[in-house]
């Protein structure tokens, strides 16, 4: 499987493994239009899985430094939910090399503006 990973910040790229033939990483620079363009480019280049990756602060007191949140879906600014693939989510969690922290699953909120 060839996976494409999209980040919003260049610094987030350093948190990921190095690129390879089966792992292509792109940085959108926090631009939704660029993120869409790069996502389409990743699919056109043969990626069969896409992962949006980011480092963020938590709004929940239960989340601690090092925890990972895997989205069950994304709620957009209009309140619409875009569900994540259950199969893909389970494979992702099974393959996580957890060194510290916990893995949480739940809906996340995505917006173009803070």
- Beta content comes to 25-35%
Shape: globular
Proportion of helical residues:
10-25%
| pLDDT averaged residue by residue | 86
What is Rg? 14 Å
Largest sheet, in brief, is: 3 strands, parallel
Poorly predicted ranges: none
Number of E-type strands: 6
Total count of helical runs of at least 4 residues: 3
Gap from first CA to last CA: 34 Å
Counting helices, strands and paired strands, the structural category is: alpha/beta
Strand order of the largest sheet: 2-1-3
Give the SSE string: EHEHEEEHE
Topology:
Layout: E1 3-7, H1 10-13, E2 23-27, H2 32-44, E3 49-53, E4 68-75, E5 81-83, H3 86-94, E6 103-109
Model description:
The chain has 114 residues and is α/β, with parallel strands linked by helices. Helix content is 23%, strand content 29%. The chain has a three-stranded parallel sheet with strand order 2-1-3. Strand 1, helix 1 and strand 2 (23-27) form a beta-alpha-beta unit. The chain is globular, with a radius of gyration of 14 Å.
List keywords for this structure.
alpha/beta, three-stranded parallel sheet, three-stranded mixed sheet, globular
Task: Give a short synopsis of this structure.
With 114 residues, the chain is of the alpha/beta class. It is built from three helices and six strands.
């Amino acid at each position: 499987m060839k996976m494409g990973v999209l980040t919003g910040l260049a610094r987030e790229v350093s948190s990921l493994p190095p690129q390879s033939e089966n792992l292509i990483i792109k940085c959108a620079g926090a631009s939704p239009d660029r993120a869409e363009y790069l996502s389409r480019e990743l699919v056109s280049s043969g990626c069969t899985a896409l992962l949006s990756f980011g480092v963020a602060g938590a709004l929940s007191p239960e989340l601690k430094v090092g925890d990972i949140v895997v989205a069950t879906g994304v709620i957009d600014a209009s309140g619409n939910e875009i569900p994540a693939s259950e199969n893909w989510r389970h494979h992702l969690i099974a393959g996580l090399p957890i060194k510290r922290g916990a893995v949480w699953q739940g809906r996340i909120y995505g917006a173009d503006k803070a």
